[in-house]
Structure formats: C-alpha cells, structure tokens
Design brief:
Blueprint (H helix, E strand, L loop, with lengths): L6 H10 L9 H5 L2 H32 L2 H12 L5 H8 L4 H22 L7 H25 L9 H30 L1 H20 L15 H13 L2 H17 L1 H4 L1 H9 L6 H21 L8 H21 L3 H27 L7 H29 L2 H18 L9 H7 L11
Helix pairs in contact: 3-4, 3-8, 3-9, 4-7, 5-7, 5-10, 5-17, 6-7, 6-9, 7-17, 8-9, 8-14, 8-16, 11-16, 11-17, 11-18, 14-16, 15-16, 15-18, 17-18
Length: about 450
C-alpha cells in the first residue's frame, strides 16, 4: 500500500540521487553533491600539480645537464612522503576541512615563490630545491588528510566507487598535466607553469569552502607528539589484514614499479624512441590512460567483486605484461601492451586501497592512510635509488623481470583481503540507517 512521502524520504532521495544506482559504483559516488564538488575541485588542483611535476625534472636537466641534480630534484619532490605518518597524526587531531584548505593555500603561495625563483636565467640551485621541498612537505600533510576525508563524503556501501574515482582522478590529472605543462613551458617559459599551478590550488579551496566534513573525535590519550606518530603503526598492527595490505603495496612499489621511472631508458634502449619526442609522450600517455581505465573499472565493471581474487589475478597479469613489455622491441606493440599494463597496475592499487579504507575507523583513518602513502609513494624513490647501481651492474631488463617475479610472489601473499573488518570498525562504517554527517 502506497504512503505519502515523508521528510526522511525526501532527504534520502537527495542524498542518494537515483535509487537504481548500483551501490559501490562510480556513478553512485558521484550522486553525492559534496563528494562531486570536492572531487572536481581536486581534479583541477591535481592537473596543476602534474604540470609542475613533469616540467620540474625537464627543467632540472635543461638547467644543469647533470643527472645527479635531476635525481636530487626527484628526491625533494617525493622524499617528504616518508614524513606522511606525521601528517596523518595531524589529520586525526584537527578539523580536516580547515587543514586541507590551509595546506592548499600554503602550497599555492609556495608554488608562486617557485615561479619567482625561476624568473632568473640562472636561479640559485639551493633556493630552487628548497622551494620544491617545502611544497612537498605540504603534500605529506595534504595526502593523508585528503585520503581520510574521502570516505566521510559518501555512505559506506559506495566507498569502492569513491576510491576508484579518486584513483582515476590522479591518472587523468597526470595525463592532462603531462600534455599541458610542457606546452606552456615551451611557449611561455617555466615560471608560467609554476604560477598557474599555484592558482589551481584554489579549485580545491573553493570546493572545500562549500562542504561540511566530519572531523575525528579527539580524546586526551596522554601520548607525546612522537608517541601519537608511532601509535599509527601500533594501530595498523592490530589488524593482520591491514598489515598484509600495507606490506603488499610497499614491496610492490619498491620492487615492481621501477619501470615507471625507467620508462625513458626503456623507450630509448629497447624501442629507439627519443624521450624528448612526441612519440615518447604518446607512449607514456597510453600507459596513463590504461591506469585511468583500470581505476574506473573497480567502480564499474568490478563493483561488488571480492577483493582477494581481483588483486591476486591482476598481480599475475601485471607480471606477465611487465615481462612482455620489458622484452618487447616493437614500437607498434608497445602502445597496446603499455595500455594493458596500466589497466592491471591500477586495478591492483585501487582494490588494495579500497580494501584498506573498508577496514579503518574515522578516528584513526588519517594515520593509517599516511602509512599507505608512505608505503605506496615513499618507497618508489628508494627503490629507484637501490635499482640504479644494479641496473648499471647487470641490465635494465634483469631488474624489471625481477620486479615481475616479485609481483607473482605477492599474488600468493595477498590473502584474506575479504575477511570481515574488526567489530568496532564495522559498527562505525555500517551504522543504523542514518546518513553520514558529511553528506548533509
């Protein structure tokens, strides 16, 4: 028997949008207005970040012609991610919305300062590296805080769609930034790239200004600042599946993702492609587009699928494709292989991230996601530093094939990802049917 619509029905309809949307899908996540605003605001900001990231290494090479300086520039860009546990501790103790806005404004002014530094024909090297390092320090706080904010903008059942969209966001912005940044650099000069990046931070600031984000409940735990940072590790150790996820992504990033940094070397030595050519740009873009497809597939094609088989199967596929891509010498074949490699690579990353997000409580989310960022992003530059001398002593092919073998080994290790979350986390993520505060 039909009944009149109540105020609660109207509110639920506004929150959920189309009730026919499949729970956990990317479309379901985008039906939340506040998530949508923050998502597109972060996309605009991330395009600017990737414009700067891509141009910085090229600028370091043009400025010095010194591979050691280029490597140093890469380190100051990524090295501060090792400090993410400190950023995660901050994210769990302060208003995350205000924190994100404040850090974004700080990074915007730092990017403007970088534009001023590079106005000189021969800028001070220490000022250049120092300014980039300061921007990256901001990311050590911004990254875990944003990752902790994401789940509060959708219902628990739509978390996988939100995570897949966020993963796709990173890769779409990488592709767009890689195209736009070099074009501005060539046409107007390097300072314009950094200045425009500074302006793009305000996309996310404006988006956050219009939403309300639940902040964690802060209790006086009697711990020192260092104790709170270390508490993140202790919290992670309580759940063996969280430990397994973090270990998997850390080993995968350290051993199996060397190929991303070494892609210019692979292109030149195996395919005869000049890394400064448009052909190389298209080759890198094919991999990036594959990563976009892989991330979105988790929120569409694979919605509702179990985490464990998705990760294990795609780790094996990743290993096979990486080995084939490494041994391939045909330029024509490199494009579809790279595209497929990007797909399975980011299916693995997105599913692992979703599995982790589904097992952590809001009060500790910042600290645990900081460990994720450290394990995923922070191990890549260390892995490349270790791999460099080994490549010189053996060969790039040997190192990349070893990375493929490690991925196969990880497919046996990545078990139990679908085990139920701890009772206290499950109660928080699946409460009685009231909408989360961040969606009102």
């Amino acid at each position: 028997m039909d009944r009149p619509a109540t105020a609660e029905d109207v509110l639920d309809a506004q929150l959920e949008g189309d009730r026919s949307l499949k729970p956990g899908s990317a479309r379901a996540a985008l039906s939340y207005p506040m998530f949508r605003r923050v998502y597109f605001g972060s996309l605009g900001s991330n395009v600017g970040t990737w414009m700067q990231n891509v141009v910085l290494t090229a600028y370091a090479w043009v400025l010095t012609g010194d591979p050691a300086f280029v490597a140093l520039m890469g380190f100051v860009q990524l090295g501060p991610l090792a400090l993410s546990p400190i950023g995660g501790t901050i994210a769990d103790r302060y208003d995350r919305r205000r924190l994100l806005m404040g850090i974004s404004v700080f990074q915007a002014f730092a990017a403007m300062a970088l534009a001023l530094v590079t106005l000189a024909a021969d800028p001070n090297r220490l000022a250049l590296l120092g300014t980039v390092f300061v921007i990256s320090l901001g990311q050590a706080v911004n990254g875990p805080t944003f990752s902790a904010t994401l789940p509060t903008l959708v219902r628990a059942e739509d978390l996988s769609g939100a995570v897949s969209l966020t993963s796709a966001n990173m890769n779409v912005s990488r592709v767009l930034g890689s195209m736009i940044g070099p074009a501005i650099y060539a046409g107007f000069g390097v300072s314009w790239v950094f200045a425009l990046n500074g302006l793009t931070y305000f996309f996310i600031v404006v988006a956050l200004w219009t939403v309300r984000v639940p902040s964690p409940t802060v209790r006086d735990d009697g711990l020192s600042a260092i104790g709170r940072v270390l508490e993140g590790f202790r919290i992670a150790k309580r759940d063996r599946i969280v430990v397994r996820i973090l270990t998997t992504v850390a080993v995968f990033s350290f051993c199996s993702l060397i190929f991303i940094t070494q892609m210019p070397t692979l292109a030149e030595e195996h395919l005869g492609v000049d890394p400064e050519s448009g052909t190389y740009g298209l080759l890198f873009a094919s991999f990036g587009l594959g990563a976009v497809v892989g991330a979105l597939s988790v929120g569409s094609v694979f919605v509702g699928r179990r985490f464990e088989p998705l990760v294990r199967i795609n780790l094996v596929l990743f290993a096979l494709l990486l080995a084939v891509w490494t041994l391939n010498t045909s330029l024509a074949a490199a494009f579809p292989i790279g595209f497929a490699l990007g797909i399975v690579y980011f299916i693995v990353i997105t599913v692992l991230s979703t599995a982790l997000q589904s097992r952590i409580a809001n009060a500790t989310r910042g600290r645990i996601m900081a460990l994720w960022i450290m394990c995923y992003g922070g191990t890549v530059p260390i892995g490349n530093l270790v791999a460099g001398p080994i490549i010189n002593a053996t060969s790039l092919t040997a190192v990349l094939v070893f990375g493929a073998a490690v991925a196969v080994a990880l497919s046996f290790y990545a078990r139990g990802l679908d085990e139920p979350a701890p009772a206290e986390v499950a109660a928080e993520l699946n409460p009685a049917p009231a909408p989360p505060a961040g969606t009102r």
